[in-house]
Specification:
Helix 1 runs antiparallel to helix 2, helix 3 packs across helix 4 and helix 3 crosses helix 5. The longest helix has 31 residues. The protein is built from 5 helices and no strands. By secondary structure, the chain is an all-alpha fold. Helices cover 65% and strands 0% of the residues. It has one domain. It is globular and about 45 Å long.
Length: 130
Amino acid sequence: MLHKISLKERLGGTILMCAIVPLAVMGYLLIVFIGFFGKVDRARQGVRAMDHFVNATIFNGYAWESVSSHAWRKRDKRWARFIIWLTDKFQKDHCKRSNKREQDIIDLMIKKRLHEQTIGKNKKKTKETI
């Protein structure tokens, strides 16, 4: 089922992506450079951000969650079993540990409804806004 997306949200998203994609490419190149020649902590943060980006776009996960944590939540799916198998080659129970570390963040994000549409969304009247 397709979600109804407003023209305003599509236009805003397109303009935003035109600015973000070139910066993301520059960021990737900077991560590679810093990974070899700079402070590893800075590169680690960039890699973590890219991990979340890949999870949200490729694996249709939450933007606040890593691929590893998402794979553990969806461990009955074929793609997730592959990710778990692969990461276990580098660190035993990596996905399980990632999920344990990140699940509270995911739960908070869902509780606060941060995963929902924001641009072009009509606010419902609540007691606080009346």
